[in-house]
Amino acid sequence: MRKRGHTKKCIGAVLCLALALSVSGESRADSLSSITSESIREKEGQISNAQNEKKQIESALSDIKAMKERLEGEKANLEGYVVALDSELEEIQKKISELNGKIVQKEEEIRETEGELEAAIAKQDEQYAAMKMRIQMMYEQNDDHYLEMMLSAESFGDLLNKLDYIQSVSDYDDRKMQEYTLIREYVETCKEELDAEKEVLDAAKVSVQKEEASLEQLIADKEAEIVTKQSDIGNKAAAIEEYEADIRAQNELIASLEAAVAAERKRLAEENGRKLTYDGGVFCFPAPSYKRISEEYGERIHPILGVPQFHNGIDIAAPNGSPILAAYDGEVVAASYSSSMGNYVMIDHGDNLYTVYMHASALYVSKGDLVAKGEQIAAVGSTGRSTGPHLHFSVRKNGSYVSPWEYLG
User: Fold this and answer.
1) Which end of the chain is more exposed for a tag (fewer CB within 10 A), N or C?
2) DSSP, residue by residue, 73-103
3) If we measure between CA atoms, which residue out of 377, 343, 71 comes closest to residue 214?
4) Quick one: pLDDT at residue 1?
5) How far apart are CA 352 and CA 254, in angstroms?
6) What angle do CA 264, 270, 275 make, to 5 degrees?
7) Residue 7, by phi and psi: left (phi above 0), alpha (psi -120 to 50) or beta?
8) In terms of C-beta density within 10 A (0-12 exposed, 13-18 middle, 19 or more buried), how is residue 398 classed?
9) Structure pTM?
10) Closest Cα to residue 126, out of 194, 191, 41, 33?
């Protein structure tokens, strides 16, 4: 009777332990409850992809030396040089934007992987604790309790049931050991993936810094070339004539755009009565990251040519790539490039009132787009006849330039 009572206690303990392990392990409804070799292979594939990403980032850096060699042949003609250099600037700016997008994406992927790793470690610790409990229980019960179970069988059917139970417990132990081995491997693979993703992130950040340095170098070269051309005493008369011709071409382009808008507005009004009107509201400042006003609106002596010149807007010094905002609600009537204005946007606000935004590094709107006050339409740059990153902001009313300060809050 003593042995039978002891056997019942053993069976009860094993059943309780099996139930506890089942509740703590198998009933967890999370993604880690189904870790397989395929899950680990998928992670290994992601590690390989990350390593390839890193190589691609490092191999795609702009070749600033080759760019300078291409530009050297254009220096004889300032306009051709500016157009060619702006093309290189656009290529670098595009790479910077793509890299910054990759940085944001990679930071999100790292957060996800860190979450997966944290959950996997918690699962591993939970399984390890359960296995220690199981081993301790087996040690305390010694090796003969299964024999006692079989000897206590009251019939051949009972013996078969007990053998089946013993096999189930053994299978359960094997399965738990396999799960623990897989989760440990999964944890290590998650750590490797995290390291690989961080390497991609670091490579992207380093590449952004190098691309921005190349951008700044080309802008500095451009500034030096413009200053050299316009400061050369022998070329002063030609430089003044070229500059004035450039401004005339700029004004003619703006005027032609206004004329086209007027004609289109008349046609639309005749067809359906559509009319864009300015309600008199205050403009928002178009470059929220500005540092200073580098050139004011009005008459001035040109800083390089030394001749009187009307400056038809305000120059707002701001970091390259920083936002340019629509000063007020309106319709985009031009989003294009010229060798003088660089990348520029022109917005119709109604009642013959327009704003113009010049020298952008990137344009985010197209002709015909409706924009709201404060909406980002472009990014600050140094394209066109520009000697450093800034926004040239102009306001035109009834075909003439007016002071932007009349409309800015």
Assistant:
1) N
2) TTTTSHHHHHHHHHHHHHHHHHHHHHHHHHH
3) 71
4) 39
5) 13
6) 65
7) alpha
8) exposed
9) 0.65
10) 33
Amino acid at 348: D
Q: Whole-angstrom Cα distance, residue 115 to residue 33?
A: 16
Low-confidence stretches of the chain (pLDDT < 50) are 1-30, 233
pLDDT at residue 136 in the model: 73
Please say whether the beta carbons of 325 and 346 come within 8 A.
no
> How many residues can be counted in the chain?
409
Number of Cβ atoms within 10 Å of the Cβ of 23: 10
The pLDDT value given to residue 72? 86
pLDDT value for 169: 66
Dist CA 46 CA 34 (whole Å): 19
Distance CA 50, CA 57 (A): 11
| Angle between helices 78-141 and 2-21 in degrees, nearest 10 | 170
Residue 394 is encoded by which pair of tokens?
A: 């102009």
pLDDT, tens digit (0-9, with 9 covering 90-100), for 150-172 = 667 676 676 676 666 666 666 66
Contact 171, 21 (CB under 8 A): no
Give SS3 for 327: coil
Residue 19: per-residue pLDDT: 38
Q: Specify the pairing of strand 370-371 against strand 330-338.
A: antiparallel
The pairing of strands 376-379 and 342-350 is: unpaired
